[in-house]
């Protein structure tokens, strides 16, 4: 059974940093895309960042470019999100997502973790 467990969220002041981790279990995910989405109150879930299977390419939403960094450790089946210079508008529940983009496609989600940035 696939399980994704996020950690590292919390409350931080504007300008501060947090590092999220998502540890996956149940299979090997080295050939899967790993990423993060977030959902603010009253809004839809939005893409934040993703990293290609072997970490060659990373993709970021415009709102986080230059502030967030995604990385992965395939040996640990873990993806990380380093968030620097946090802003109040980054406040949201952050969800880890791991997906297989070749047939058969599949997608797995973590339970979500709260990040709150105070002004």
Any chance you could write out the topology, listing elements then pairs?
Elements: E1 3-7, E2 10-13, E3 18-25, E4 33-39, E5 46-51, E6 58-60, E7 68-73, E8 78-83, E9 92-100, E10 106-109, E11 113-118
Parallel strand pairs: 2-11
Antiparallel strand pairs: 1-3, 3-8, 4-5, 4-9, 5-6, 7-8, 9-10, 9-11
Main sheet makeup: 7 strands, mixed
Total beta-strand segments: 11
How would you state the average pLDDT, rounded? 96
**Please, how many helices?**
0
The 3D shape can be described as: globular
Radius of gyration: 14 Å
Strand proportion, as a percent range, falls in over 45%
Low-confidence stretches: none
Structure in a nutshell:
The chain has about 120 residues and is mostly beta strands.
Can you tell me about this structure?
The chain is mainly β. It has no helices and eleven strands. The strands form two sheets. Strands 2, 4, 5, 6, 9, 10 and 11 form a seven-stranded mixed beta sheet that branches. β9 and β10 form a beta hairpin.
Key features?
mainly beta, 11 strands, four-stranded antiparallel β-sheet, globular, 119 residues
């Amino acid at each position: 059974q696939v399980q994704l467990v996020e950690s590292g969220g919390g409350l931080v002041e504007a300008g501060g940093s947090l590092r999220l981790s998502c540890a996956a279990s149940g299979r090997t995910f080295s050939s899967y895309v790993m990423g993060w989405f977030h959902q603010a109150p009253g809004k839809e879930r939005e893409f934040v960042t993703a990293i290609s299977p072997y970490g060659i390419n990373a993709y970021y939403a415009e709102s986080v470019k230059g502030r967030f960094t995604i990385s992965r450790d395939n040996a640990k089946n873990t993806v990380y999100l380093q968030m620097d210079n946090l802003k109040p508008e980054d406040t949201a529940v952050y969800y880890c997502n791991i997906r297989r983009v070749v047939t058969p496609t599949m997608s797995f989600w973590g339970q979500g973790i709260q990040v709150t940035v105070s002004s």
